[in-house]
Amino acid sequence: IPGAAEHGYTAAPLVDGERLFACVGGTNGAGMVCFAKRTGQVLWKSQDDLAAYAAPMVATLAGVKQAVFFTVTGLVGLTLAEGKPLWRVAIQTSYGRNVSTPVIVGDWVVAGSYRAGLLGVKLAPDGTGVKVATVWTNKSLALNFSSPIAVGRHLYGLGPAKNLFCVEIATGRLAWSKEGYFNSSPNTPHAAFLGMGNNILVCTDVGQLVLMAADPTAFRELGHAQVCGFNWCNPAYADGRLYVRDGLKATGNLFCVELLP
Q: What is d(CA 154, CA 156) in angstroms, rounded to the nearest whole number?
């Protein structure tokens, strides 16, 4: 299982206070590493997991603040101070392609891959530690490399049928599905999701921005605009402006789009 060695180590690290967490992928007990943000000093290293492509997360789950990693072999929760394992859920995918960043809501961790499907994992206190259970799996909503977003108690993402979807986090129940916004070529579809209050801005792989309501009762488009060409990039947002790059190679362009109310 090659993991990130196949396409390069592209997972973003995460800064939390004075710590920086990264999925390094060392099989010598350095699968996940915590660095001092200002100096690069190694504060701890843990496990033998190969790196996948998902960014780590820091959250309080079952009353314990922890770092959550999505590696080649699955989800792993580690203590912040020492990197000691708290829990683990196996999620294996061909070629180690666990790409989408897990979404954490309350004591839920939602993650998935194109072979395993979408999974709802629930944590609960267990004495001085935590216990974990995979409560539901929805294979019809298998994620590939587009990370979903949570608004309230629902998750919004891109499914394998080139469809936008909304799913209830506590049950895995599909609330709605909408097709028609993504490429019609054989290439794998991609979308980037940004929360905008009660709305969600979607950047599609054909360079269209779609503003939709974060509404679990029905899909509602609030507006759309063509802003760039084909892309698999996640745009950046700051001060009312969206920065997005198109093209799959160095020949692409960088655009700055002003978002008006």
A: 7
| Interval 151-163: pLDDT, tens | 999 999 999 889 9
Instruction: Residue 27: name the closest of 1, 5, 49, 3 by CA.
Output: 49
pTM tops 0.90: yes
Of the candidate ranges 91-100, 114-123, 203-212, the one whose mean pLDDT is the lowest: 91-100
Q: Which pLDDT band holds residue 10 (cuts at 50, 70, 90)?
A: confident
The amino acid at residue 43 is L
